[in-house]
Design goal:
- By secondary structure, the protein is of the alpha+beta class.
- The protein has 5 helices and 17 strands.
- The strands form 4 sheets. It has a 6-stranded mixed β-sheet. It has a 6-stranded mixed β-sheet with strand order 8-9-10-12-15-16, with helices on one face.
- The protein is globular, with a radius of gyration of 18 Å.
- The termini are far apart.
- The model has no long low-confidence stretch (mean pLDDT 97).
């Protein structure tokens, strides 16, 4: 029987132009989280590099890596050494001309359990991800790790209740969202508080609606890898319980390793006291697969 109480860790840090330095920052954070008792640790989105999707430039395809490959071998060795489950966000080179924004799940013995490819790909000012990433084709998945059943979605996926629901229905008790989101500097003063509140609220809603823990690792700091105004990433990584209560929230400006204790028995408790999954009218939801009900 899996232990009911365990600790979840999130790595929130700045990224510079040196990929190796960013990887070492992640590794130091992972060791710090493990030293604080974390059993499952998540990186932020695309932790190896600055957020290059601010521009469309073919040079950044050189950042991509095969999965499995040397990068996942190093991550597996770290997970095995520290006896932790690791969720890591990578730029996947699947084939020439075919790239994905991918998260890997590595068990505490170093086994690469699988990967999730980001399903929802944004194309907004300074978030030009459609230039780089093919939409995911693996569906919404859950892995039975040594410590807990976990599901993973990535950043833009976090706005879609369908993604959270399907991942929870596949068995996830903890839903992780590696993330890279921030403010356009010109918008922060007028819209920043509202934008952040919307982001946090929708994900806490996923926890409530699905009776699961939600853990979100977001990067922090200002990045403008090719000049221009750049993005001020707002950090504020957080872990919330199945009632949506925040257990731990990071700073808006500082690098942090967040670790919080969770109790998996609360998943069963929440889902029996607030039986949203039981009362779903699956016989009435057929039209959810339509783009718009415009008859």
């Amino acid at each position: 029987m899996k232990q009911q109480k365990l600790r979840v860790g999130l790595l929130q840090h700045r990224c510079g132009p040196d990929l190796q330095a960013n990887a070492l920052t992640m590794e130091r954070g992972m060791r710090t989280a493990a030293a604080q008792g974390a059993h499952i640790i998540s990186t932020q989105e695309l932790f190896r590099s600055q957020y290059f999707c601010q521009v469309e430039d073919h040079k950044y395809f050189t950042f991509a890596e095969t999965i499995p490959g040397p990068g996942t071998e190093r991550l597996s060795a770290l997970a095995r050494e520290l006896k932790v489950v690791l969720i890591a966000s990578l730029f996947e080179r699947r084939a020439p001309g075919l790239y994905h924004n991918t998260a890997v799940v590595i068990d505490a013995d170093g086994t690469l359990l699988g990967k999730y490819r980001k399903m929802h790909i944004p194309d907004d000012p300074l978030f030009y991800e459609k230039f780089y990433f093919t939409p995911g084709d693996l569906g919404f998945l859950t892995w039975k790790t040594k410590y807990a059943p976990v599901g993973v979605c990535i950043c833009w996926d976090q706005w879609y209740p369908e993604a959270a629901r399907l991942t929870a229905l596949a068995g996830a008790q903890i839903l992780f969202y590696p993330t890279a989101i921030g403010w356009h500097p010109s918008e922060k003063e007028q819209q920043g508080q509202r934008q952040h509140a919307s982001w946090e609220t929708v994900q806490r809603g996923h926890a409530i609606a699905n009776g699961c823990y939600v853990a979100v690792a977001n990067r922090v700091g200002h990045e403008a890898p090719d000049g221009g105004p750049g993005i001020e990433f707002w950090g504020q990584s957080f872990i919330c319980d199945p009632s949506g209560e925040i257990l731990k929230r990071g700073s808006s400006s500082e690098e942090e390793v967040l670790v919080a204790e969770i109790d998996l028995s609360l998943v069963e408790n929440q889902r029996t006291h607030w039986p949203f999954l039981r009362d779903r009218r699956i016989d009435a939801y057929g039209e959810i697969n339509r783009r718009l009900i415009d008859t």
